[in-house]
Amino acid sequence: MNAPEYFLETFPPDQFPQYTWTERPASLPPAAWTTETTHRDGQQGGLPLTSDQSLKIYELLCAFTGRSGAIRQAEFFVYRDSDRLALEGALARYQDGAPIEPTTWIRASVKDVALIKSLGVRETGMLASASDYHTFHKFNPGGRNAAAQTYLDAVRMAVDAGIRPRLHFEDATRAPMDFMRPLIENVLMICEPSGLRPKFRICDTMGLGLPYDDVALPRSIPRIFRELRLIGLAPEDLEFHPHNDTWLVVANCIAAVREGCAVINGTSLGKGERTGNAPLEAILLHLIGMGYFADPAPDFTALNDLATFYAGIGEGLPPKYPLYGRDAHRTRAGIHADGLNKFWPMYAPFNVPALLGRPLEVSLTKDSGVAGVIFLLKQHLQVELSKDDPQLVPILTWIESEWSAGRQTSIEWEEIAPFVTQWIAQAHA
Fold first, then answer.
1. How do residues 183-192 score in pLDDT, each as one tens digit?
2. Secondary structure of residue 35 in the 3-state scheme
3. Which domains does the chain have, with CATH numbers?
4. pLDDT at site 312
5. Using CA atoms, how far apart are residues 291 and 132, in angstroms rounded to an integer?
6. E-assigned strand segments in 258-349
7. CA 225, CA 425: separation in Å to the nearest integer?
8. How many CB atoms lie within 10 A of CB 71?
9. Are 320 and 328 in contact (CB under 8 A)?
10. Cα separations (Å) of 313 from 48, 306, 310?
11. Which residues are paired to 103 by β-bridges?
12. Rounded to an integer, what distance in angstroms lies between the CA atom of residue 111 and that of residue 335?
């Protein structure tokens, strides 16, 4: 074959990689989206947020979402004055047309429902611990019946106040379906006369879920959602809230969507309790690949401002954090730099500058060779040189002297820019 095969249906030049289905899963929801918990789980996980900072995150996520519907709701704590101020500000912005609906997060208790009755929210999340690890040890007296009665009393109170309940089944990947199924059925019965359609969030609280169909409940994410669909729940009634303790958070989210869960709850840019929640930017990249959000799409370049914001409050991203970390698109290998010089898609997963607003970058090391220097000159000075160009000699000589002197750290453009620019200018004088 004389012409190259780039599989452009799967790897279109100016889109994220696409899922080319051999057979589209029958259980895939007609629509899918995300909800965010930065103001709750992100703050609980260590983000030191003032009311203004919380609102800034809300505004940045609204800019990212735009008209796409990528993130539809955000949940807020209500226990401190600063959290209620943030919620009030978000509600005001939502009423003025912001695209993300603010909701609340409370414990499923009548005491907590009383806190939110006058706040103006239309929906609230309600923590309903589901596993026997919780129900037998969190309540006094302990056990499933005591827990269920507490949750149902809170649901009744929320419904009487005209607030849609969203039950958060904590620790669902260690919970018996024999507890969750009748609880769901009772919630549906309580809500039916009101016309409010309840929602149910499956929480993989300890990151123990598995994305496989051929493992048993309670760990199988596909089996959990299949069971819930059999009860009669629609995709939009279901939400998945996983953690990344065992590294499977993104795979589990994809498995949930494939099995008919329309909504993924998480945070953007890796924030959250312990090892973090589902990274919404990664989930949305895959949802776009599945065919969702074709037009309009969320603006992934807007998340650069969120990364900058986090750095400004002392919560910057790890350098190698996927997509938005400082080094996420940086190579230090000469063979990669050479590939970028010859045909940049060779060493880029997609059009990173266009889709993320981030450059492909090279740092100079003992292994980056002459190709790394050529890349930097082209990127920063728009000067294209061949490997044997004499203009490279003083630059390469200086770099080699650094390694010979025992240097171990990489060389960045900012360090060499002043004298390299001068040498190139002198060569053209």
1. 999 999 999 9
2. strand
3. 33-312 (3.20.20.70), 330-427 (no CATH)
4. 96
5. 39
6. 263-267, 278-279, 330-331
7. 64
8. 25
9. yes
10. 8, 11, 5
11. 75
12. 62
What residues contact 233, with CB distance under 8 A and at least 6 apart? 184, 200
Mean pLDDT of 62-87: 97
How far separated are the first and last CA of the chain, in Å rounded? 47
Question: Residue 408: what residue type?
Answer: Q
Q: Has residue 368 got a pLDDT over 90?
A: no
Handedness of CA 409, 411, 414, 415 (dihedral sign): positive
pLDDT above 70 coverage of the chain, percent: 99
Q: Which residue has the higher pLDDT, 258 or 423?
A: 258
Q: Which helix (H) or strand (E) holds 342?
A: helix 334-342
The helix (H) or strand (E) run that includes residue 283 is helix 280-290
Average pLDDT value for residue range 13-21: 96
Cβ neighbors of 345 (< 8 A, separation 6 or more) are: 6, 13, 351
3-state SS track over 159-197? HHCCCEEEEEEECHHHCCHHHHHHHHHHHHHHHHHHCCC
* pLDDT score for 429: 62
Helices (H), 66-162: 81-95, 110-116, 132-138, 144-160
- Please list the residues that pair with 203 across neighbouring strands: 241
pLDDT of 140 higher than 90? no
Burial of 97 (0-12, 13-18, 19+ CB in 10 A): exposed
Q: Is the peptide bond before 182 cis (omega within 30 degrees of 0)?
A: no
Helix/strand/coil percentages in the chain, nearest 5: 45, 15, 40
R_g of the chain computed on alpha carbons:
26
Q: What was the pLDDT predicted at 311?
A: 97
Helices 177-191, 221-231: inter-axial angle, 10-degree rounding: 40
Backbone φ and ψ for 263, nearest 5 degrees, come out as: -130, 130
Most distant pair of Cα atoms in the chain: their distance: 86
How many CA atoms, within 13 angstroms, populate the side-chain half-sphere of residue 319?
Answer: 3
